[in-house]
Amino acid sequence: MRASYIAPLAVLIASAAQAGPLTYEQAIARAVAGAPGAVAARAGIDAATADARAAGSLPDPRLAIGFDNYPVSGPPAFSPSEENMAMARIGVQQDVPNLAKRHAAQAQARAAVTSAEAAQAGRLRQIRLGTGLAWIDLFYAERRLARIDELLGSLRALPAAARSAVASGAARPAQPLGVDQAIAGLEDRRDEFVAAVARDRASLERWTGVKASATLGGPPDAMLDPVRLRQALARHPDIFAADASVRRAQADIDAARAETRPDWGFSVAYQRRAPRFGDMVSAGVTMSLPLFTRGRQELRITARLSAAAQAQAEREDTRRALAADLESGLADHVMHHAQWMRARDTLVPLARKRAELETASYAAGRAGLTDAIETRTALADAELTALDREAEVVRDAVRLTLTYGSAPQ
Fold first, then answer.
1. Would you say 259 and 304 are in contact if contact means Cβ atoms under 8 Å apart?
2. Predicted model pTM
3. Tell me: the pLDDT tens digits for 354-406?
4. d(CA 58, CA 106)
5. What order of strands is seen across the sheet that includes strand 62-68?
6. Among 238, 305, 310, 352, which is least packed, fewest CB within 10 Å?
7. 209-235: burial string, b at 16+ Cβ within 10 Å, e else
8. Which DSSP string corresponds to 127-172?
């Protein structure tokens, strides 16, 4: 195995044996360094590059061995020694395709290398994107679980207090039931959050190969620069791949047109005759005759021209689809950011203020325990909603930045 393959595989094996918290940057670095998809993409480039080095070279020569002028009738029949023209022959033949055809083959090979490089860039971008989104999902799933645990911890002491209040006559008998119902509902949600953490952790491990126990540090910046993202659109791997397809189609046209030009060949042979006759050497040149181009080569040229028009149209379709997705993503990011700000700056403070007032009223005996629990649960809901909206904003930023803004390595 080549060293270029051994190194990434060694990183992959070593990473799989490690476990621990990962920052966002560490997760992406590990995924890019050791992902099997990245190793496969690099191997594809090596294969295409090796093919490109051989493209346009002359075909292998051919060895020709034969027996010429063997008599089969007349007085010297089946007696080559009596016939001065019978001879054993050994020679070499070499075909020489026309230069235009060889140049077209080289252009086709270069386009294949570009396609492989675009495929690698696309694969690495996919790895970064999948890893980044998996890390973001796990990060916010852990924060949701921590918040629900805080709320449950503060509520689990209330049933005993409620029952004591009922026993003393300070509360109605139904109030402890309301507390138990609220706690049961929150525990159901906690189970969902625990499952989400496990799913997201498995997703992150799928990309990094590391059994990450938790996330470390904070999320990446949620702010975007739309101008830079639009400018980077032309460098998207899908555009690179489409450009390579266009160049390959043009090389195919050149190759088809080269078929209208003659190919050459030459041969050299040494001929051995009977001992009493002298030996001979023969040399010759061959040339193909593309005489019927209308029914052959011109039809192929027409087909390649149509294929080139198709590749050009598909490139434009790819560009439009990427531009539309970018603009749609930017619009969603603006909307999600506004909703997050509203939840963080308005809904959560209002829910917190209401919970504080109801708690104070309950302490003063002007509100029931159920009312206080409901407002605290509503506060938790508002905080979880704010977390969900923040996660959506960060997901938008990661998706758009890694899809359009980050340069492939």
1. no
2. 0.77
3. 988 887 887 777 766 677 777 888 888 899 999 999 999 999 999 999 999 85
4. 12
5. 62-68, 87-96, 264-273, 280-287
6. 310
7. bbebeebbeebbebebeeeebeebbee
8. HHHHHHHHHHHHHHHHHHHHHHHHHHHHHTTHHHHHHHHHHHTSS-
